[in-house]
Write a sequence for this structure.
């Protein structure tokens, strides 16, 4: 008797789901570092797709579009979570060019670990700019800030990353 | 001069999430996208032995199992009727600590094509009946008990039977 629900042209999110879920989850998991968070944000991403699909002028549903939504959900998540680094003061200028820890070799795994200890906006800016490879203008629009403010944020974020990364190297 | 942090570039590599999570999320999406969703009713029955109850509803009353995520909960379907079976426990406790129990006089009511044949068949399978077949409003009906003591009414429409007709077609 009919009970199983087969995807039809009326269910575009269902139709793309099997192919798209591992991509969305694969985007989120290494960036947020937690399976539970990656699951929650994946669910939010697909719920947003269903909502968008029910509107007057629905977007073209694609894996790329879903990753874009996932990216927004990730940034929103970091904003909600708040400051993660314990007692970590954001330093301004003064670190440029001195003792550059990645002049010789950048340990990516150590850098990802250091990223997790930065404040949410710094983590978001560096993730979008370097892990995702987005140009600064796009990073700015995801963060809802001006290009100038984003460039300043990136400078500070890189300095903070360098400091945490070096602390990690010492231990 | 290239930026050394470009080495952090992390392309999207597909990762399969937990199968349970993937299946549950798919069901949520299907329910939201299914225009027929929300037409059926949901009823919850409390049971003491979940395995016995699920076996009974599936094998004796023809329900389909939809979900069985834990030892204290199952979701079954019979057409548009969704039947939830729960073992009483802390999540169901009232503010004063009172727990629900199986049984009581309220019941779900199932339309069967031939009541006499159905009753004979169920008796043969060992089902317990609370009463004999009686005539109700527009129906002949009987009460059968599930293993936990919940009542299920089986009825067969008579000439005077009434049910609101659902609109059909596109």
């Amino acid at each position: 008797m009919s009970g199983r629900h087969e995807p039809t042209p009326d269910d575009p999110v269902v139709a793309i789901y099997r192919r798209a879920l591992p991509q969305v989850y694969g985007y989120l998991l290494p960036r947020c570092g937690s399976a539970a968070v990656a699951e929650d944000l994946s669910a939010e991403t697909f719920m947003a797709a269903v909502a968008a699909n029910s509107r007057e002028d629905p977007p073209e549903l694609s894996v790329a579009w879903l990753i874009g939504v996932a990216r927004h959900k990730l940034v929103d998540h970091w904003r909600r979570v708040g400051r993660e680094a314990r007692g970590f003061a954001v330093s301004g200028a003064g670190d440029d060019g001195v003792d550059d820890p990645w002049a010789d070799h950048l340990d990516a795994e150590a850098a990802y670990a250091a990223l997790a200890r930065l404040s949410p906006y710094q983590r978001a800016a560096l993730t979008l700019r370097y892990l995702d490879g987005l140009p600064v203008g796009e990073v700015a629009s995801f963060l809802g800030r001006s290009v100038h403010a984003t460039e300043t944020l990136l400078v500070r974020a890189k300095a903070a990353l360098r400091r945490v990364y070096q602390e990690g190297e010492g231990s | 001069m290239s930026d050394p942090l470009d080495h952090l570039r992390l392309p999207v590599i597909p990762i399969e999430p937990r199968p349970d999570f993937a299946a549950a999320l798919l069901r949520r999406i299907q329910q939201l996208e299914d225009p027929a969703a929300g037409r059926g009713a949901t009823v919850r029955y409390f049971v003491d032995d979940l395995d016995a109850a699920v076996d009974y509803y599936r094998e004796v009353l023809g329900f389909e199992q939809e979900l069985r995520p834990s030892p204290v909960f199952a979701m079954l379907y019979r057409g548009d009727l969704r039947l939830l079976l729960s073992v009483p426990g802390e999540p169901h406790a009232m503010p004063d600590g009172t727990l629900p129990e199986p049984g009581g006089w309220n019941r779900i009511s199932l339309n069967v094509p031939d009541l006499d044949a159905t009753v004979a068949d169920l008796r043969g399978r060992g089902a317990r009946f609370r009463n004999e077949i009686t005539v109700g409003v527009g129906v002949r009906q009987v009460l059968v008990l599930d293993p936990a003591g919940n009542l299920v009414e089986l009825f067969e429409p008579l000439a005077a039977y009434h049910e609101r007709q659902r609109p059909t077609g596109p």
